[in-house]
């Protein structure tokens, strides 16, 4: 299975990249005990910023950007993580996904996540990220993960799950959707099965 994480973090080291890595580890932890072999890749948008801007102007992606787009559209599961800017996803994050064909992620399982300095922006998952991927016709897992600065290293309390628990739950949900999708028959298989059913029919 191909798992791709898109990280729109700008700094080095990046909390956004760290969250993407932790989420990818959680997906591996869900799928590998079931016998699935998972190949992971992280797309760092910071490294593609100039190429993204040029592509928006010229319409022609250079090879590294084209490879990143192909990786995202060819993934069996996608993790999308952005820092919060002005109460929404970053411009770099949105610019990259503006380059994705609206039908290219149809039915693709996606886990959305974001990082920010304060928990006040946690609703960015619901008012910005989910609508974006709904437009792209992806299937977004129920649990989105928002990590504020104070969430790192906390285990939660009796009333709320800590960040590690939310990461595990979201990773488990994405892994389950990826496994279910891989178990679905290919379109050609569905047609063959239908043909077999029709050929078995007997008419009086």
TrEMBL record:
GO terms for molecular function: oxidoreductase activity. The keyword Protein transport does not apply. Signal peptide: none annotated. The keyword Plastid does not apply. Keywords: Flavoprotein, FMN, Oxidoreductase. InterPro entries: CE1759_FMN_reduct, Flavoprotein-like_sf, FMN_Rdtase-like_dom, NAD(P)H-dep_FMN_reductase. Pfam families: FMN_red. Residues 1-152 form the NADPH-dependent FMN reductase-like domain. This is Oxidoreductase.
């Amino acid at each position: 299975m191909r798992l791709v994480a898109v990280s729109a973090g700008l700094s080095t080291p990046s909390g956004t990249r760290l969250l993407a890595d932790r989420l990818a580890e959680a997906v591996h932890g869900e799928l590998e005990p079931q016998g699935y072999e998972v190949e992971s890749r992280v797309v760092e948008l910071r490294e593609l910023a100039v190429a993204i801007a040029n592509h928006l102007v010229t319409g022609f992606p250079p090879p590294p950007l084209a490879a990143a787009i192909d990786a995202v559209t060819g993934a069996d599961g996608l993790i999308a993580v952005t820092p919060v800017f002005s109460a929404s996803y970053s411009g770099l994050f949105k610019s990259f996904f503006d380059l994705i064909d609206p039908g290219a992620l149809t039915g693709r399982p996606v886990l959305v996540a974001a990082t920010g300095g304060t928990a006040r922006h946690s609703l960015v998952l619901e008012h910005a990220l989910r609508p974006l991927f709904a437009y792209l016709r992806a299937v977004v897992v129920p649990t989105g993960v928002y990590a504020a600065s104070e969430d790192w290293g906390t285990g939660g309390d009796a009333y709320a799950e800590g960040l590690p628990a939310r990461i595990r739950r979201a990773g488990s949900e994405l892994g389950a959707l990826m496994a279910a999708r891989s178990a679905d028959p290919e379109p050609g298989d569905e047609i063959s099965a239908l043909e077999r059913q029709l050929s078995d029919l007997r008419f009086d």
